[in-house]
Amino acid sequence: MVAASQDNLDAFEILVSRHQNRIYRMVRQSLRSEEDAWDVSQEIFIKVYNARHSYVENAKFTTWLYRIANNAIIDKLRQLQRKQNTMSLGELVSEPKSADRTTHANLELGEIRGFMGEALSALSERQRSMVILKYYEGFSVKEIAEIFECAAGTVKATLFQAVRHLKNNLARSGIVSSEVTS
Questions:
Q1: Distance CA 53, CA 41 (A)
Q2: Fewer CB near the terminus (10 Å): N or C of the chain?
Q3: pLDDT confidence of residue 97
Q4: Domains and CATH numbers, the chain
């Protein structure tokens, strides 16, 4: 990133190629829309490029990158929420509900992923982002704390609450036993 901050386009291209798949997966998991994920992923790297001169050399690049990515995801989720809030009643009523099956035996992997996506969507933006960074992207609590600019204890507490909410939502869908949530 130091070379990219000095207008070395080859260095920037290397950064993009190294990180674009992880960023896309994180965005896709958060937004649950392939089209939105591609758009936001591209926007993230445009923001990184535009902010390249403000990069501090002693900062960890991935922390800086994921902070930008997290903010872009939050912005997109807010935009989508505003759009959803303006939907007509007819559009809301006609939308199908997919939570009618309740046993493991009846669920295909795609349906389980769908329920997991719905459970993730029910979390707050902050909880969802932290869960994705921790459990999908493999970031440490310390790294997540740096991305969110908060204490590690705050990350742990947020993750604890998020996991509890996920378990409860998945139990209501019949994906996990309600005994697991006790």
A1: 20
A2: C
A3: 40
A4: 1-88 (1.10.1740.10), 98-182 (1.10.10.10)
